[in-house]
Amino acid sequence: MKPKLFALLILLATGATTAPNASSKPVVITPTDPVLHKHGRWDSASGTWWAGSGFQFVVSDLTLLTLHLGNQTTTPLAVAAVRVDYGDFTAVNVIPGTNVIPIPTGSKKDNRVVHINMEGWENNYMHLERIELNSEAVVKPYKPSPQCFQPIETRDSLSAGQPPGSARSLPPPRMEPVSVRPRVLPQNALPLIWYSSLNVVREPAQGKSV
Prior knowledge:
By secondary structure, the protein is mostly beta strands. It has two helices and 15 strands. Keywords: Signal.
């Protein structure tokens, strides 16, 4: 075989093995993607700083989750509450740019439900640009429970001082065992009212007594 022809074959073979595989591209979820179920209060820039606001989605074959946050995200960091498959919330520090979110071990083939909420109650803004998953991940629409109660949490009320913040304040734990979906709508300095399967609790505005 001629040397030039041999060199050409080697070059082609090398290129074939190193060429990028289109299937290796990450799965991207944008803030407006219908598979992403957002809750709480969000602004027009796809950002939120309201404690308890966040999003959830369903995915199978999940091995990698990366949050890409915009430059409006609180610096030096913001704190999010993350959980997978309705386990315990874990506090995760996030910054503007790329944030790799730890995924607990589980069956990759099964559907997994990912929740990410804002944990703090001030100076904690998350500017969501996109979510990237591993290329094998299959995202499916999240179907919220038809049963929904809406807690309205005041600043420095039941969520303040809770580890981790509003993520494990009283309303969500009370609702989850009976398969009720909590929907948090924070309202600073307004009366707190939440409805549960057992009772109605009212808290007066700050600085006032009943």
